[in-house]
Each structure stands twice: as structure tokens, then as C-alpha cells.
Specification:
This protein is of the alpha/beta class and 155 residues long. 46% of the residues lie in helices and 16% in strands. It is globular.
Length: 155
């Protein structure tokens, strides 16, 4: 399964974002990057990058998104403001698997400062390869979408 993935980072996640993008390209995924270049260490506001990636997911221009900041939390808060985005800060393999199986997580948020590079790559691998189980979980996703629609949330 090859995906179109938008990946973004603030200044905390530049180095790992570039490594992730290179790896995903090698694996055959179509990758679009957002955030500062490797040689720019100036602070970047994470909401701006998260909004760029979440908007692509919200509008169906990419299959999934990956966001990286210091903790993954700020990116997640921003991304979840967009309709159809289901985002969470993931810290281990089990969360990566269950976030896909049960929640159909389409935007993965990662901590550049609290996770090892090895753990980040294990999380991404599991998250990409794990399918959504559907079934009883599908009705829950539908309820989330209904809430979004009732509140008039849009990207």
C-alpha cells in the first residue's frame, strides 16, 4: 500500500522530518513536506505547519499526515480543528496500532524531543501498515463526523 503523505514539522523536528520523508520516498510513498529547511534553526510556529498538513488531509489531497514538534501535542490540538482529521500524539507501538485499528487515525503527531529516532520509525511503520478495523469502530467514526457537521466545523 502506497500513500500520499504530508509531513510537517516546526524547528524542533526538522532533522527527523527530513529523515522520515527520505525513508517514505524510498518505500514508494508520495511525500509532501512542510516546515523549515535543515539549515534554518529559527523558531517556526507549529500551528502554521499543522494547519497546512491538516488542510490537505481535510480536503482529501493526501491520504494521511505526519506532524512533528517538541511534544506532538500542539500539532495535534491544531490538526484536530479541521473536519475529518483524527489526530493524536502517539508514543509507542501499541498506540500506533490501535489508533489505526480503532480510530482510523489519519494524522500522526510525534515528539521530536521525547522519542528516540528508532521509536519514531517503528511507530510510523506500524501506523502506515495497520488497517482500520471498521465494524463497531465505524459507527464511532460516523458519530465524530456527525458532531463535526452539527457544530459546523470546517477546514
Amino acid at each position: 500500500m502506497f500513500l500520499k503523505i504530508a509531513i510537517g514539522s516546526d524547528h524542533h523536528g526538522v532533522a527527523i522530518r527530513i529523515k522520515i520523508a527520505e525513508t517514505l520516498h524510498r518505500e514508494g510513498h508520495d511525500v509532501v513536506e512542510y516546515g523549515p529547511p535543515i539549515d534554518n534553526r529559527d523558531a517556526v510556529d507549529y500551528p502554521d505547519v499543522a494547519a497546512d498538513v491538516a488542510d490537505l488531509v481535510c480536503n482529501g489531497n493526501v491520504d494521511r499526515g505526519i506532524l512533528i514538534c517538541g511534544t506532538g501535542i500542539g500539532m495535534c490540538i491544531t490538526a484536530n480543528k479541521f473536519a475529518g482529521v483524527r489526530s493524536a500524539p502517539i508514543i509507542d507501538e501499541l498506540q500506533a496500532e490501535l489508533s489505526r485499528r480503532h480510530n482510523d487515525l489519519n494524522v500522526l503527531c510525534l515528539s521530536a524531543e521525547m522519542l528516540s529516532e528508532d521509536m519514531i520509525f517503528r511507530i510510523i511503520d506500524i501506523w502506515i501498515k495497520t488497517p482500520f478495523d471498521g465494524g463497531r469502530h465505524e459507527k464511532r467514526i460516523e458519530k465524530i463526523e456527525k458532531i463535526e457537521n452539527e457544530l459546523g466545523i470546517c477546514g
